[in-house]
Design goal:
The structure holds 2 protein chains of 2 kinds. Chain A is an alpha+beta fold. Chain A has helices at residues 3-11, 20-44, 58-75, 89-107, 170-178, 219-223, 229-251, 271-283, 289-300; strands spanning 116-126, 131-133, 136-138, 140-151, 156-167, 184-187, 190-193, 200-203, 210-212, 215-217, 306-312, 318-327, 333-340, 345-352, 361-371. Chain A folds into 2 domains: 13-75, no CATH class; 89-371, no CATH class. A 9-stranded antiparallel β-sheet of chain A has the order 8-5-4-1-15-14-13-12-11. A two-stranded antiparallel sheet of chain A has the order 2-3. In chain A, strands 6-7 form a two-stranded antiparallel sheet. In chain B, helix 1 (44-67) crosses helix 3, helix 2 crosses helix 3 (97-109) and helix 8 crosses helix 10. Classes of the chains: A alpha+beta, B mainly alpha. At the A-B interface, helix 1, helix 2, helix 3, strand 1 and strand 2 of A face helix 1, helix 2, helix 7, helix 8 and helix 9 of B. Chain B: This is RNA polymerase sigma-70 factor (ECF subfamily).
């Protein structure tokens, strides 16, 4: 939390009297009318005669605005939920074999070969609003490093380091230079800076360090997950349904019944969340080799996990790309993972955001696995 | 990895311009910006009525944050009347209606400096409208003990008025450097220097590093 956020917390949300808008509108309307009448009298030059009241068809204008807003809301193009082009049968078969091969590799890995399991990721996220001045606009992306350290006894540390915001692409960089190469911007209540911050490391004390589909999980619970593909998928599906039901219960809403059916081969509405939770076991948690292998095998059997073929991540590392839809409404959001079947590691994740998110959110795995290094604040990449 | 995030701060000012500060999180897709209902104009009373309806809530929120709800009503009325009176001076090529209204509101707030200081003192000691009816959810979302920041409130009150105006137009109204420059009629570069100075003083008041900074989601999947 930076000082601007702390400041917003200090100010909070002022209370809004429901009749206030109408009351102030009346006052402003009266003031406007008075002003127009004064102007009319002055022009007429006849103080004795009562001028005609100027017409103020605000009500009409307001109705027009409301209609326009509605039209805008409706006119948002409905993107199709599915990804372009259905995969061929051959692609599906080879995708499945890639995931099964990764499962075999994962299962063959030794359980623990160091004092700490550690994953170091580079995150890049576009800022949702273009920056710049006048007609010269450009996009920036913010980056940061995160690290997660897990000791063999289950203690957890998390580290992070903001790397600052930088022009998103070449054209953006040119526009940024034309803007005078600013090192700071304000946008949406935040100040973005090109400067990296200090790295921080924090022991995850007093809270459950992991979560899967919203369910808090301890290190021990991850170690105890089922090692059969079907059993693991069932476990995850149940957790997803329970978490959604709990979330709906919190909000007093209904509509969780539709969550049933994730076990069916046809694919249920929650398959995206289930696939996401399963894939999280591959690269964001200290899952034992047998659990990682089970997660790969479970993903291989999910019809909503699509094989996109060979691909390279932003660092040029080659692997196999898979994607699944995380949610379909209001706009489809997809996650694409590139995995290295050779060592079963996930290389990168790209979340293709909805319109307005400013672009893709990318995570690159820089290091993953066991180490004897001691936890420390993340260095620069 | 997380399920798609549900929570987002209520969008303020949709239709008047970009949403005021939305929650910023590294987890999940960024909520999309509230789309503006199109360019607003001040030509004619009808158009002015539309501007009022689109921008009232947002301008009121800002003014009420700065000088309290009791005084906000008068100042907001005055803001729109001033805007109407000066509508011929408004240049749509230089500023959005939204930035222009914030500029007028900020000037008017400047006439209530003592009230602003009183408001800040109350915010620092008692928090923002903690006992207002209908605010249970928002109050619950905040960690109320943390929002009581007499030190921070005092630091904001002590700022040079011009620095405070820039700071709050950025932090509360969510304006860009460019919009702040046009709203206040100051050079672009001045926005940056005033903002930096204000932030430096706030950071000092908060005592350097913030232990609450949460390297969220590193392991939360």
């Amino acid at each position: 939390m930076d000082e601007l956020e702390t400041l917003r917390e200090l100010y909070g949300e002022p209370q809004a009297d429901p009749f206030l808008g109408a009351r102030v509108r009346g006052r402003v309307e009266a003031g406007v009318r008075e002003r127009l009448e004064t102007g009319a009298r002055r022009r007429a030059g006849a103080p004795g005669r009562r001028p005609r009241r100027p017409r103020l068809p605000w009500a009409l204008a307001v109705a027009g605005v409301a209609a326009a807003v509605t039209a805008v809301a409706v006119a948002v193009p409905q993107a199709t939920a599915g990804a372009p082009g259905a995969p061929s049968r051959a692609a599906a078969v080879s995708g499945r074999s890639v995931l099964l091969a990764a499962a075999t590799t994962a299962a063959a890995e030794p359980a623990a070969t160091g004092a700490y399991w550690r994953v170091r990721k580079l995150h890049r996220r576009p800022h949702p609003e273009p920056l710049g001045r006048g007609g010269n606009r450009y996009r920036v992306a913010e980056s940061r490093i995160t690290e997660l350290w897990v000791a063999r006894d289950g203690r957890v540390w998390s580290g992070s380091r903001e790397l600052g915001a930088h022009p998103a692409g070449k054209a953006d960089e040119d526009a940024w230079r034309r803007d005078g190469s600013p090192a700071e911007w304000s946008s949406r209540g935040y100040v973005l800076s090109t400067a990296p911050e200090q790295g921080r490391l924090r022991a995850a004390t007093g809270r459950v360090p992991f979560s899967m589909a919203g369910r808090a999980m301890t290190f021990e619970e991850i170690q105890a997950l089922p090692v059969g593909a079907a059993a693991l998928k069932d476990w995850v599906s149940r957790a997803v349904r329970e978490e959604l039901a709990a979330a709906a219960g919190d909000g007093g809403g209904a509509g969780t019944e539709s969550g049933a059916g994730t076990e069916s081969g046809a694919g249920g509405p929650l398959d995206g969340v289930v696939a996401d939770a399963l894939s999280g076991l591959l690269w964001s948690k200290p899952s034992p080799p047998a659990v990682r292998a089970a997660a790969y095998r479970a993903l291989a059997e999910m019809p909503n996990v699509r094989y996109l073929g060979e691909a390279a991540d932003e660092r040029g590392r080659r692997g196999a790309a898979f994607s699944f839809t995380l949610r379909t409404s209001p706009e489809p959001v997809r996650r694409t993972l590139i995995i290295d079947p050779g060592d079963s590691q996930v290389l990168s994740s790209t979340v293709t955001g909805p319109p307005g998110s400013g672009g893709d959110q990318v995570e690159l795995v820089l290091e993953a696995g066991w180490t004897d290094d001691e936890p420390s604040a993340p260095g620069l990449p | 990895m997380t399920a798609p995030s549900r929570a987002a701060r209520p969008a303020v000012g949709a239709g008047c311009g970009p949403a005021a500060p939305a929650g910023r999180t590294w987890a999940g897709p960024v909520p999309s910006a509230a789309e503006a209902a199109g360019p607003l104009s001040l030509d004619g009373p009808e158009a002015f009525g539309a501007v009022f309806d689109a921008c009232f809530a947002e301008i009121h929120r800002y003014v009420a944050q700065r000088i309290g709800t009791d005084h906000a009503e008068d100042v907001v009325s005055e803001t729109f009347l001033t805007a109407f009176r000066k509508r011929d001076a408004y240049d749509p090529s230089r500023a959005s209606v939204r930035a222009w209204l914030y500029g007028i509101a900020t000037n008017l707030v400047g006439r209530h400096r003592r009230q602003e200081v009183r408001t800040l003192r109350a915010l620092g000691r008692h928090g923002p409208d903690a006992d207002a009816p209908g605010h249970d959810e928002r109050v619950a979302v905040r960690v109320s003990a943390q929002s009581l920041r007499p030190d921070l409130a005092a630091a904001v009150a002590k700022l040079d008025r011009r620095d405070r105006d820039v700071l709050l137009l950025v932090a509360l109204a969510g304006l860009s450097h460019e919009e702040v420059a046009t709203a206040l009629g100051i050079p672009y570069g001045t926005v940056g220097s005033r903002l930096s100075r204000a932030r430096r003083k706030l950071r000092a008041a908060l005592g350097g590093g913030d232990p609450m900074l949460d390297p969220e989601e590193a392991g939360r999947g």
